[in-house]
Hints:
The structure is a homodimer.
Chain A: E1 9-13, H1 21-30, E2 35-41, E3 60-66, E4 69-74, H2 78-89, E5 96-103, H3 115-125, E6 130-135, H4 148-161, E7 167-173, E8 180-183, E9 189-192, E10 195-199, E11 205-209, E12 212-215, H5 224-229, E13 232-239, H6 245-252
Parallel strand pairs in A: 1-2, 1-5, 2-4, 5-6, 6-7, 8-13
Antiparallel strand pairs in A: 3-4, 7-13, 9-12, 10-11
Helix pairs in contact in A: 1-4, 2-3
Amino acid sequence: MQQTLKKPLILITNDDGDAARGIAVLTQIMMQLGDVVVMAPDGPRSGQSNAITVSEPLRYRKIEEREGLVRYICTGTPTDCVKLALHDILDRKPDLLVSGINHGSNAAINVIYSGTMGAVLEGCENGVTSIGFSINDHTANADFSVFEPYILKIAQETMKNGLPYGICLNVNAPADTIKGVKIARQCRGNWTEEYEKRLDPQGRNYFWLTGYFKNHEPESKDTDEWALANKYISIVPTKIDLTDFDSLKTLQNWDLTD
Amino acid sequence: MQQTLKKPLILITNDDGDAARGIAVLTQIMMQLGDVVVMAPDGPRSGQSNAITVSEPLRYRKIEEREGLVRYICTGTPTDCVKLALHDILDRKPDLLVSGINHGSNAAINVIYSGTMGAVLEGCENGVTSIGFSINDHTANADFSVFEPYILKIAQETMKNGLPYGICLNVNAPADTIKGVKIARQCRGNWTEEYEKRLDPQGRNYFWLTGYFKNHEPESKDTDEWALANKYISIVPTKIDLTDFDSLKTLQNWDLTD
């Protein structure tokens, strides 16, 4: 009796919504590696971090089914998409979760705001090998062509080697030229001058989020920001455990009796 | 000429909204320590993580001003509240940011979903000493009285000792009895059986988020979950750098040429 070899099962989501170019490209790439299920937000959900929908119900529906691919859209956040796909759509744990390709970098501190990476952290929490892919180009028609062979290779290597529980990958690519891949750490920095203040026709203030990222360590060559600035793809191994182990001992010496 | 001693400036926010009991109690406590500015969401924003509002503008307005206290409400997320307060309300960097008191635990993996802790990570990114306070009681009229003296002491000790850049505190208290304080690490675990599936009057499915937290290491005595279960307050030093430094070397050995 011949045994059926199951293809790898790959779950895809993003935060730019199901209509974005990035997720279409990522879906094409992943179909080379296995059976693909897409569960994407039904519109843009940028900057949604790990937000979950708690005060209203969620819905999802199938929008396409063909050989090797089923696509769904969901009313929730990227994190909701992953939770609901794992709970109600997939009959087994996927072999890989990929999120993106995000239109815009999620390097440095952007990892904490990113809906793309929120979905990745969610997969990771649930024991799924998870990778976020982003390109440093916010435009709707960003060109992913030089990034594509790297995405395939990174996904293959990740499935081959696996990742420890609680660790996922944050992969960012420069916009045009790619010189290679750097394993990097999350660059220190913060966003600054963040709002544009305007007056509405009634003379009341309102504020648009804007601003720019201030790199705290532009000279360091081991960061994701350095890699991107120097035309390398950055791969940051990323944890869901936020504990600062170095501080545990220091805090023991504080006087915290009431 | 006598020099004016400036009182510490303390920024307060939360994710349960300005009408929650928790933020009122936290405000009373902090007024013992300095001049307080509250910038809270104008309604509940639970589970908003580090979400930022990018596709619509924000507004805020003053709702109260008296000796030592100014209160504002904002249309955004907890993270928006912090960003906008730092940008448009405060004339100097606050000496302390506190978020909460959250009605519900933010221990273990809940840190990544929590709007309360999202605000804390945001303060931390901006170089502000930041603490999140939560109690393991979801009810609107949670009793904070046994927690209150600890909150005062923890805030005092934190202002006295300071925290390194990039490190903030995630403080969680049990609901009734408190035996003391444990410095702890984030417990491993994940949420499971997360949705309740219902049929609407048109016969279509919709899903409510629910489920329970599955502790992966119930025997470990150094976790925040253990502390809470054993009637201790947990304090987890929490990082905004998500890099897993242990994996940097392993990944160097992967074959990532395209």
